[in-house]
Every structure is written in C-alpha cells, then in structure tokens.
Amino acid sequence: MASPGSIISILLLTPQGIGNFLAVLAGVGLAAVVSFGVASVVLLRSHQPQSEVNATQHIQHAIRKIIITGTQGIGTPQMAVAILQAKLKPLNDITVSVVAEPISALTPDQNALFIAREDLVSMVHDQVPGEIRILGVTNYLKSPVYDQVLAMLQAQNQAK
C-alpha cells in the first residue's frame, strides 16, 4: 500500500478525468483491504508461539534437565534459575536440574526442556536442531511459564 505522499504523487500523475482518479483511488483502497486481510490472518495464526505448542506436544522423554538460556547464559537467565529452583524446592519428589547456559553452548538433549526469551527461540532452534522442547518467555523474572513447567513436572512424576 502506498504512503500518503505516494498517493498524492500517483494522483498527480493520473491522466485527466474523474474516472481515472476514481479507478486509482479504488485500487489504493482495494490494496489497503487486501493488506489488512493478510495481516489479520498472519497475526491470528502467530498468536501462540510454535515453541510452546511443541513443548507440550512432545513429552515422550522425561524432563531431567531445565536449561534457561540467553545470549550469554548469565545475568537474567541465572536469576531465573534461582527463581525456578525456589519454586521446585517444596516439591521434594521431583528431581530435575536447572541450569543457565549460553545459546552457543547448547547441545541436543532429549531429556532437556529449554527456556528462552521469545525473541531468542529461533536462535535456540538453530543451535539445537531437531525435536526439542522449548518454551518462550517474555520476562525471565516474572513468567507464568514457570508454573506450566511445574505442572508438566508434576504430571510427569505422577505418570511414573
């Protein structure tokens, strides 16, 4: 779709006649409607990150390790490890290690659950190809994903 300045330029270059002007404006309007429609479909389909869907669908192997990852693996991911360990402490019957690692040091592990910031999920998939369980978070320090992880671990523990 053209910007307002472009629309003015297009109208200035349109041949004389009201029919020509209406045809150009109708084309611009139609382009706006099509753009809006395509954008709506894309946004509706991308509402839930694919990584969260994959994490809940592929629980074939027991989760033995939770890796919270970032570009450096220190700082906020390390604080998230402490938060998740504190949430796991009351659950004595669940034994899982929680660590922070930089994305560049990740290796495939069927028994691992990866947690990364949503904008880094694709980097994790690039570093660790194949079927992995990964959850995206918007904020390492305050995320409802940690409660989902606890629920997954409790369900896994009850299935034993």
Topology, element by element:
Elements: H1 4-13, H2 18-45, H3 50-57, E1 65-70, H4 76-88, E2 97-102, E3 112-117, H5 121-127, E4 133-137, H6 145-159
Parallel strand pairs: 1-2, 1-3, 3-4
Task: Characterize the structure shown.
By secondary structure, the chain is α/β, with parallel strands linked by helices. 51% of the residues lie in helices and 14% in strands. The protein is built from six helices and four strands, in the order αααβαββαβα. The protein has helices at residues 4-13, 18-45, 50-57, 76-88, 121-127, 145-159; strands at residues 65-70, 97-102, 112-117, 133-137. It has a four-stranded parallel sheet with strand order 2-1-3-4. Helix 4 (76-88) links the parallel strand 1 (65-70) and strand 2 (97-102). The longest helix has 28 residues, at 18-45. It is elongated, with a radius of gyration of 24 Å. The protein starts with a helix and ends with a helix.
Give a short account of the largest sheet. Answer: 4 strands, parallel
Question: What is the tally of beta strands?
Answer: 4
Radius of gyration over alpha carbons? 24 Å
Number of helical segments? Answer: 6
Sheet-strand content, in percent, reads: 5-15%
- Which word captures the global form? elongated
Strand order of the largest sheet: 2-1-3-4
Distance between the termini: 57 Å
Identify low-pLDDT runs. Answer: 48-59
The secondary-structure class comes to alpha/beta
- The helix fraction, in percent, is 40-55%
Succession of helices and strands: HHHEHEEHEH
Arithmetic mean pLDDT: 81
